[in-house]
Design goal:
Distance between the termini: 60 Å
Structural class: mainly alpha
Mean pLDDT: 92
Order of helices and strands: HHHHEEHHHHHH
Number of domains: 2
CATH topology of the largest domain: Four Helix Bundle (Hemerythrin (Met), subunit A)
Strand content: under 5%
Largest sheet: 2 strands, antiparallel
Low-confidence stretches: none
CATH architecture of the largest domain: Up-down Bundle
Oligomer: single chain
Length: about 220
Amino acid sequence: MATVASTLRIPVKRSYDIGGISGQIIAAINQDDSLYLDCVDVCLHLAKSGDRELEAILETGGSVWTVNTARDGLERRVDATTKAASLHATSAADQASGELAQAWSAVYGRNPDPSDGWDHSIKAVEALLIPLVVPLQSKANLGHVAGQLKANPSKWSFGVPANDARGNGETLEGLIRHIWPNPDRHGASLRTPTQQEAESVLQIAIAIVELCRGKLVKLP
């Protein structure tokens, strides 16, 4: 309880009585809904074993929060299809899965960091596309991948017929241009990404990763 109080910056008086410190914490969080949720998040993190009962309580109460997949914190509730796509995209034991998991936590976690989520989304895509598209490029990044696709759009496909307006390589390049670069990492006018932008970038990254995992992004 002392660790919880310290983490949440709740001032408490030292007490060796049973419930002494926890009582002070409860009194503080009962005055602040946001602090209450932060307390639940911290307790999950410390315990690393969020139970199903808490998850059921949050769902029954119509909370926008739920227990995350790792069961060590809260995350914003999303629709079942979106969550399932994320779980499937992170099911493989590779770098892309790890980056997507970190991106998801940064975007939908209790204390979201849109810029960090954007960065990890990019790294997830880079992990799969760099070896495929620019394997010999020194210090390659997603910009190099997009450049190669732009230079040779007809060389690439991802499983659907091209149409008169845009080929597969152009479409894939367009998706990459939407997520590269992170606006607070490159360019003259730096800015912090919005939450909505980070969510969209993460969903695009998941789609690209799934295309690569299905071995659909390839030379015709």
